[in-house]
Design goal:
The protein has 367 residues and is α/β, with parallel strands linked by helices. The strands form two sheets. Strands 3-2-1-4-5-6-7 form a seven-stranded parallel β-sheet. Helix 1 packs across helix 13 and helix 4 packs parallel to helix 5. The longest helix has 18 residues.
């Protein structure tokens, strides 16, 4: 089968765009499908080199997937970010080859609307990772409009999300004529052979930006080092400078971040609860798949997943003190949450994995 993977967000190494595109493309070529991947025009050589040689990679898309709409216009920026971006995307799509399936591993509303404008004969499948209002106060309206236009264009759609809260939100927007499926997760993790027994090494992972609690990480790391823990820091933002600090191990980009997470006895994600109310976390997925307990913010999609498994603790306020309290609770109950994390890792492969994700995204096409 001829499959086009389309991702304007693919431009750099690291992050979920590269991870999802890479794993999905590898699974598809392993199944002997003919795969062409269309990325952002500015994709760096290191990102291009990450793909199997059997995947044809074509830099195509001109728009930056995460451009702040207010940079387009102080008043009408969100409209420009939806309508004009969709028009530009539809123009770019003229260059893609004919295929049986257009697969968007990270689907945005402007991309769905662009498909409606282009009206491809191909089946259109995709995964939505973010809440409807992500980077746009009018996001829910844009998604609703894009879906209605896709229906009017006669598109054959297969849309999914990685978490149950997102599923509820998009089912409400798309209506009864189009259900949004809950997708398996591609993360295989590095399952441990037995439950962890002692809390010694604590890890912080992911791109350090405000919504991920970057401002609290330096103080948390310093406090944990003073408490005698070893700390593994995915220091993508170079928060600690070049000096060597006893007890602290820093890593930059690694091809297998899950392997680094699996080196830890506890992963801490000091995320902003509002930003992650419905959005999921790949760090949490990798931790649970690897049998690593997690500390997460209360009232979020990651917390729902962690509390359901019993494999971690939650903090209630975005403060260093509240997060340290949750880590302290994790230390007290460590054998209990480590045993739960081990059980979660043993069950992970029953419902998750790249093969299962590809099967869901290609539903009705690959039997």
């Amino acid at each position: 089968m001829l499959i086009n993977i389309l991702d304007p967000g693919l431009s750099i190494v690291g992050g979920h765009h590269l991870e999802w595109d890479q794993s999905i493309a590898a699974e598809l070529v392993a199944q002997e499908h003919d795969v062409t991947l269309y990325s952002h025009v500015g994709i760096v050589p290191e990102a291009r080199a990450a793909f199997d040689h059997r995947v044809r990679l074509e830099p195509l898309f001109r728009n930056y997937a995460y451009l702040n709409p207010l940079q387009l216009d102080a008043v009408a920026g969100e409209l420009f970010g939806f309508i004009d971006v969709a028009i530009l995307l539809a123009e770019d799509l003229r260059a893609v080859r004919k295929a049986d399936l257009w697969l968007w591993p990270s689907l945005f509303h402007a991309q769905l609307y662009a498909c409606a404008l282009f009206k491809p004969a191909a089946f259109v499948s995709g995964c939505i990772h973010t809440e409807p209002e992500f980077m746009s106060s009018q996001g829910a309206a844009c998604w609703r409009y894009a879906f209605i236009k896709a229906g009017q264009a006669g598109l054959r759609l297969n849309i999914g999300v990685p978490g149950p809260i997102l599923q509820q939100e998009y089912d409400a927007l798309f209506g009864s004529s189009q259900s949004v499926q809950l997708l398996p997760l591609p993360n295989p993790g590095h399952p441990c052979a037995a439950p962890r027994t002692a809390l010694k090494t604590i890890g912080f992972f992911g791109h350090q930006r405000q919504e991920k609690g970057a401002a609290s990480v330096p103080a948390l790391v310093s406090a944990l080092l003073n408490d005698g823990y070893q700390v593994l820091l995915h220091d993508s933002g170079n928060a600690f400078g070049p000096e060597q600090i006893p007890g602290l191990t820093r890593i930059g980009y690694v091809a297998d971040l899950a392997a680094e997470i699996a080196r830890c006895d506890l992963a801490v994600v000091p995320y902003d609860a509002k930003s992650y109310r419905s959005r999921e976390s790949g760090i949490v997925w990798d931790a649970l798949a690897s049998g690593v307990p997690v500390v997460v913010p209360y009232g979020t999609a990651p917390a729902l997943r962690v509390l359901a498994s019993g494999a971690g603790k939650v903090f209630h306020f975005p403060t260093v003190e509240s997060i340290r309290q949750a880590i302290g609770e994790a230390s007290i109950d460590y054998r209990q949450i480590a045993a739960a994390a081990f059980r979660a890792s043993q069950q992970w492969g029953q419902t998750h994995g790249t093969a299962k994700l590809v099967q869901a995204l290609t539903k009705n096409l690959i039997q």
